[in-house]
Amino acid sequence: ILIVIDGCRPDGIQQATTPNIDALLARGAYTLNAQSVVPSSTLPCHTSMFRGVTPSRHGITTNTWVPMVRPVPSIAELAHAMKLKTAFIYNWEQLRDLASPGSLHFSYFTNNLGEPEGDVTIARVAIEYLITAQPNFCFVYLGVVDIVGHRYGWMSAEYIEQIHIADRAIGILLEGLEAANLLDRYFILVQSDHGGHGKSHGTDLPEDLTIPWIAAGAGVKQIGEIKQPVRIFDTAPTLAHVLDLSSSEEWEG
Hints:
- It is a single chain.
- The chain is α/β, with parallel strands linked by helices.
- The chain contains 10 helices and 8 strands.
- The protein has helices spanning 10-15, 19-26, 42-51, 55-58, 75-81, 118-133, 144-152, 157-179, 206-209, 235-242; strands spanning 2-5, 28-35, 86-90, 106-109, 137-142, 187-191, 210-217, 224-225.
- An 8-stranded mixed β-sheet has the order 4-3-5-1-6-7-2-8, sandwiched between helices.
């Protein structure tokens, strides 16, 4: 299960009330100093996350998708090719292009980014599907933190409170999985795509590039803080390893 909190700075997590993220930190492996890519915008960052390469290779440099001249497979496409059950549950529609048509068994989108509880709605849909269908790979995207950052500013009181709400959404997932005796069966990776500064992001500033990367659950050694460098394009090969898939030769992570 890949959970992405859009625009979530690690120091925002440290300031917010996040008991569920804290529980994942305590029982897994993590870094609060992982690095994203430039431009540190949502679609370029997610494309690097899913396709294991930098923007200079995949060519997505804005939040508008364009066909790749030299296609690079995403983790969702590799999983589907090996007959694994894949799912996307998200509230920012441009992420549909992270998987080619026909690569998903289940896809749920609703545009509720203007609602403070929008990510909670996403989590409720996700846990119902996870329990009933038990997919091999499920991407859960929580997008409201980024919207609040743009509206009120990164590290504002409103932004910190929205991280708390995102943590509640993660709690819905964790509690539901535990109740269904599925928590120990899933590898869970919680991360962000980028940070932010002021009311924006997209630059090479450390505030924009530094992201959390937290792994817990099935197959994860409880080693605490990861000392080695972690990049956002390491996510795809990490998930491929967990799913017992061969990494693409194109991937840089």
